[in-house]
Amino acid sequence: RPARRLLRRRKxxxxxxxxxxxxxxxALIALMAxxxxxxxxxxxxxxxxxxxxxxxxxxxxxYAFSFQAGYLNLIINVPLALAVFxxxxxxxALRSFVFVLVFSGMLxxxxxxxxxxxxxxxxxxxxxxxxxxIIGVIYGVSLRIDSSTGGTDYLAALxxxxxxxxxxxxxxFALNASVAVVSFFVYGQQMEPVILCLVYCFIQSRISDxxxxxxxxxxxxxxxxxxxxxxxxxxxxxxxxxxxEISVRGGYSHTDKTMLICLINKRDLAxxxxxxxxxxxxxxxxxxxxxxxx
Length: 294
Description:
Blueprint: H1 2-44, H2 53-65, H3 69-87, H4 90-112, H5 124-144, H6 152-162, H7 169-186, H8 191-213, E1 218-225, H9 228-238, E2 243-249, E3 256-264, H10 269-276, E4 283-289
Antiparallel strand pairs: 1-3, 1-4, 2-3
């Protein structure tokens, strides 16, 4: 009986932790959605350019026809959210729809509250940089917690479910390119909105990729040598990083050698090259590592 009570207590604690974690995620999603709506209100709507994806579409419709972007964003995303919920991933659909719902509701709310708008005038590139950077962070964090901002991400989830082998790069590129082209006609047949849209897409994708993949980049060094013990000791003492040894065989000479694998910081590369220069008959190459765990 005491063991059963302990087991029930642990299950209850795990359930509470799970609920608190999920509540934190939903609160974070709502906060990011409200922030993104503020970014649209402050930087995007006031400076006449269209962001990427569905956000760009609703922005241009609001500019051209005065139809509230928040309402149109909700109209577009509701059927997509239902399709993803029943066909692809329920949790992903729900989390993303919370973002869509809060974002769509906060757009008119910020306008009604009279939130400050940044009119960049001739320096609209500053508004694009600010919007792309902030929304890039929001998008990257959303993906890391198994959520999204809706729109094209819903489409991507449906395509992945139907055809996992299908590349989405060209689909997303085509949609963003279409937004850029249409913005030329919507904003008075000017090239500047097109360029601003492309700059926004670049900044937003670079920032979100960094958030998603991580910024703890490193260098992986792989060294083939016939003096593993001496070189290993020099590396351990010189760059102060662990070394892994693998036995290998030369394809041309058919002699047994050792491969040393070492992860180093970029600032250690000069010290590594200096150590390696004193070893003859040693072959090495360096590759980038996006993130390091453990």
